[in-house]
Design brief:
The chain has four domains: about 110 residues, no CATH class; about 110 residues, no CATH class; about 40 residues, no CATH class; about 40 residues, no CATH class. The chain is globular and about 65 Å long. About 50% of the residues lie in helices and about 5% in strands. The protein contains 13 helices and six strands. The strands form three sheets. Strands 1-2 form a two-stranded antiparallel sheet. Strands 3-6 form a two-stranded antiparallel sheet. The chain has a two-stranded antiparallel ribbon with strand order 4-5. It is mainly alpha-helical. The two termini are about 25 Å apart. A hairpin with a 4-residue loop joins strand 4 and strand 5. Helix 8 packs across helix 12.
Length: about 325
């Protein structure tokens, strides 16, 4: 589906939904801060450092019983607990509850809107670890008509490696970030109508946040088959002469998440381009480095590409027509 009014509406809904969520989180943080002050906890004090075990126990209980500690605070008895005692505090709680309700309604609406998109109905909804919210983010932010290669999705999602001098200040071979040497200079027209330049990132920050911070952990939590890619990459890094010694466990975890998500994006690219009737290019590691496509299993004796009448040689690693291969069955 090309970018039309339906796509524009979905993108507006997605951005609006996360704007509401951000506002709800800010309101919740204010509630929690006020709650801690009423308990006599100084701002900035970590819960684990509290000397008063009763206060520490109360906060621990709330965190254990509720996904969000704010929800537990909202449900406290205003009269019995004495924590919520003013009209202003009750008003703040009222606003929080209203935002939470609106946020839930928005996410439910997103799920209904996705039924209009073939890539959701024919692929994404059946991928373990991808929910309606994450599906809506990817469909609304990616433009598969502009993504000529799988690496196009990586670059726009901020998962590429900084090696192209045209897309950075200094090509250091590291993962894309907001570091100064990863920025580029872009031209724009200022408020006075004059041409000017500014430093800019090269990726979609919302998309990168959701891919790395939401989708990756979701694959691990749901034990998706993509989680095997993470585990293999993590094991490789732990035994690597450089990364096993120099990198911290958190860094190796992040690298494993990136690898897992990038492999998923290759699959998304193939499925989406095929659904839209667009030509499908091989991933860089297959087309340029001669490595095997990750969809090929050594134990598979017969495989086929999107054109099922074509044959495929496992040893060669490519279909005779050059199309991307799917495992048999």
């Amino acid at each position: 589906m090309k970018r039309d009014r339906t796509w524009e509406l979905l993108r507006s809904m997605v951005r609006g939904t996360y704007d509401i969520q951000e506002l709800r989180i800010q309101m919740g943080n204010r509630l929690v801060g006020n709650f801690k002050v009423k308990l006599g906890i100084d701002p900035g004090t970590k819960e684990k450092d509290l000397s008063d075990k009763k206060k520490q126990s109360l906060l621990g209980k709330l965190r254990k019983e509720y996904t969000r500690i704010t929800d537990g605070i909202v449900k406290l008895d205003p009269e019995g607990d004495g924590i919520i005692s003013t009209a202003s505090e009750l008003t703040l709680i009222g606003h929080y509850i209203a935002l939470l309700k609106q946020e839930k309604e928005q996410f439910l609406t997103l799920g209904k809107e996705l039924k209009q998109f073939p890539i959701w109905m024919n692929y994404l909804k059946d991928v373990k670890g991808v929910g309606p919210a994450m599906g809506a983010v990817m469909i609304s932010e990616f433009d598969i008509y502009k993504a000529d290669y799988p690496s196009s999705l990586w670059a726009y999602g901020g998962l590429d490696v900084v090696t192209d001098p045209k897309r950075c200040t200094i090509a250091d071979g590291l993962g894309r970030s907001k570091k100064e040497n990863h920025l580029i200079t872009v031209k724009y027209r200022d408020k006075k109508g004059k041409d000017a330049t500014r430093r800019s990132i090269t990726f979609n920050p919302l998309l990168k946040t959701k891919l790395v911070g939401v989708l990756g952990p979701s694959f691990l939590r749901t034990k998706s088959h993509y989680a095997d890619i993470y585990q293999n990459e993590k094991h490789r890094l732990e035994n690597h002469p450089k990364y096993g010694l120099e990198e911290k466990p958190g860094h190796r975890h992040a690298m494993g998440i990136r690898k897992m998500v990038k492999i998923f994006l290759i699959d998304l690219y193939v499925e989406w381009r095929q659904l839209e009737g667009l030509p499908v290019s091989k991933p860089y590691h297959v087309a340029k480095q001669g490595r095997r496509d990750h969809r090929i299993n050594d134990a598979t004796l017969e495989s086929y590409c999107s054109k099922t009448e074509h044959s495929f040689s496992v040893g060669a690693g490519t279909c005779l027509c050059g199309a991307v291969i799917k495992k048999a069955g």
